[in-house]
Amino acid sequence: MEAEIITIGNELLIGQTIDTNSAWLGNELGLIGITLIRKTSIADKESAIIDAIKEAHSRVKLVIITGGLGPTKDDITKKALCRYYDCDYRIDESVIKHLEKIFSSRSRELLESNLSQSNLPSISETLLNEVGTAPGMWFHKNDHCLISLPGVPTEVYHITKERVIPKLLQTFKLPIVLHRTLVTLQKAESLLSAELEEFENELPPSISLSYLPSYNMVKLRLTQKVDKKEAVSIDLYYKKLVTTIYDDVFCLGDKDPASHLAQYFIKNTIRFTSAESCTGGLIAQRLMQEPGISSVYPGSVVVYSDETKIHELGIPASIIETQGAVSESCARAMAESVREKFNADISIASTGIAGPSGGSLRKPIGLVFIAISKKNTTVCESFKMFGTRTQIIQRATNASFWMLKKLLAIPID
Amino acid sequence: MEAEIITIGNELLIGQTIDTNSAWLGNELGLIGITLIRKTSIADKESAIIDAIKEAHSRVKLVIITGGLGPTKDDITKKALCRYYDCDYRIDESVIKHLEKIFSSRSRELLESNLSQSNLPSISETLLNEVGTAPGMWFHKNDHCLISLPGVPTEVYHITKERVIPKLLQTFKLPIVLHRTLVTLQKAESLLSAELEEFENELPPSISLSYLPSYNMVKLRLTQKVDKKEAVSIDLYYKKLVTTIYDDVFCLGDKDPASHLAQYFIKNTIRFTSAESCTGGLIAQRLMQEPGISSVYPGSVVVYSDETKIHELGIPASIIETQGAVSESCARAMAESVREKFNADISIASTGIAGPSGGSLRKPIGLVFIAISKKNTTVCESFKMFGTRTQIIQRATNASFWMLKKLLAIPID
Fold it and tell me: B367: how many CB neighbours lie within 10 A of its CB?
């Protein structure tokens, strides 16, 4: 089964709002075996809305539209839907009751404009929205189905999970779609692809492989649509994929590498800390996004200036004078010192030249030293990162995650 | 002049990637007077690409497509373009030279798959991509123009700024579009909008006001399309806008608030530091993105655990025992201590409950104390932030920037 999404709103076209709803919906639909074949964004304009729906329904039976359901003048989706279905409005008492409840709980007056949200196209079924004021709507006519949702992401998530997915499963006979993802963290997409050429050539037509690169991370995803008759073979190919590039795999599943590391630290009560120069705190920032991290993360330092490296971490001034702050000796000393300072089991240190200025022939922009220290062992690697200041910082952070994985032999699952 | 964008990639439809390119492009096109009327996302499928281009060109003369230019099998945009334009490939020597340069600087082997990126549809003009390996392409046929760009955001930004915008300005007669932007950092969009109702009603038809909200930041943008005959009045209205909400303005121009602050610190040699608990280093992280910041940023600490607050910053254990780490006294002590520790002129401290767990009736999730300390003065404010862990961290960071502006009376321009 195929579907299309139409997102409505001028703010999407002038670059004011980044559309996150449709990516989320695409994933949710995929999980129940509905393939999204197209997403279209258009302005709050009646003719544009009607045209887009007609076009989408000429290709697919299921169309989901988001946005344009607010109480203000520029929201005209309902009007366009009445026109498209050639129907009038009905008043939904359940929506009025919900609005009264919501407004009294917020101690706000229920205005005429708010009440208008209970006027719905007469042929629609209401998809009640407990977390907002604009209900969703379900239209089913001539074997074609259209779902209209508000534009606010939390409301889209709520109505979809609670109303849309169950109703879709009930209404349509859907296939099973399987995904298997893994994360690599150092090798370029083109090199991985060269290594996987044979593997890709041997994939059956029902299984496809996608590459999703971001900085020096590449996610690899296998997708298979399964008929009931067909033997489920995706796990065999997934195993083969993992084996083929085993040394490059950071973790299995569709995971943020920082989250994989943080969960390992939490589970094994490994206290970590960092002393960051060129990455400016990003290594710690990314790890501390994980809920529950406070049990193993006492804190960390950003030591940006030479004086701070000396005073906060006791880096010998002689190292900085003879070899510079951007050096292997300095990175090693930073990692060892910060580990002791915070009484941590493992520490990460970064020092480098993120640019856009400050590079030299011997120490060019993008030169980064990363050291990881644990009891009795400190390792250090140097990298030549390329790209902008932001890219160098991101790539150095990913490189430190890869080094952590290697040094601690962190399992990929 | 109107345009459409087509973004190509299975990852956009299955929800693995959120499309940020098209929002950015929509904004850039708007700045030179090109109105985006539709965005379409489709899969890496030849027929889908060709159909989408045909449909878009039936509505508009200018079509921009992104994605599908990588060296791997699933990238088939060029093949589809050759089919659409009924042309063959040419080899672009300038691209080969660029690829050789990039791969040798990265000490990586240039594979056959990488070299394939110099094969371009014969009727295309090359839009050289200095920051990546896939060049952009410009097609101009029968008064219709199509631009094909890679999918990697930094590459889209680079090629668009350096090649596409200049070429569009040269090729088409575009109106003059003027923009005036300012940044607010604390008041909700709905409240600003209520205060600006009269101002908005008095705007001439040629000038429009847009609200661009993100966490507790709202950017306000005036836009005017100017004929040569028309007197340019946007600056008068911009002045009036600034006056009307003067107390809420953080800075003038389309600027990142962190960059505005960092530039002020650099210009006035104000050394800053931070002691962050719930924001986990994000305050320092955002400020240190500014090139040249090293002259005024010695470093900072993340003090996540109680013990670190006590050991690293000397926060009296009695404060943590009696009032808790999430308290005004603790925030104030953190700010004062870290300022002395790093011999800084100004310091920022954050302590709060970012969630998703750890809240209580007296100290709910979202409760955040932020303290700013300078010589002889420490101020502290408490906030009740809404949203997810990430949203609370982002909002607390923006709140600290607003407090810095107020305490230091930082000019808005």
Answer: 21
